[in-house]
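Quick review question:
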């Protein structure tokens, strides 16, 4: 859903993952990927992939819904601070 079909530039950028971790959580998988911009700057790409089943038994269609968030180096500290606060509140 995020990629433009037959666009080699998009495919090339998607392959340039410097570091990656995944978290499986029920029907969802979260991907934490460190990538590089075209200007050679690193950023964090967080992708939520959720399995979606449509239709009735015997005619079910399985697809994956994806949502992405991009966090750039200059925003990471603020984001982590806010995330820590939210996690502490939830606990």
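Suggested answer, residue by residue:
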């Amino acid at each position: 859903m995020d990629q433009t079909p037959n666009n080699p530039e998009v495919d090339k950028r998607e392959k340039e993952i410097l570091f990656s971790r995944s978290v499986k959580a029920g029907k969802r998988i979260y991907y934490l990927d460190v990538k590089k911009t075209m200007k050679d700057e690193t950023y964090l790409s967080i992708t939520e992939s959720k399995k979606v089943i449509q239709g009735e038994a015997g005619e079910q269609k399985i697809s994956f819904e994806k949502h992405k968030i991009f966090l750039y180096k200059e925003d990471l500290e603020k984001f982590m601070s806010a995330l820590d606060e939210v996690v502490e509140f939830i606990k």
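Why it works: The first strand starts at residue 17 and ends at 25. The CA atoms of residues 61 and 90 lie 36 Å apart.
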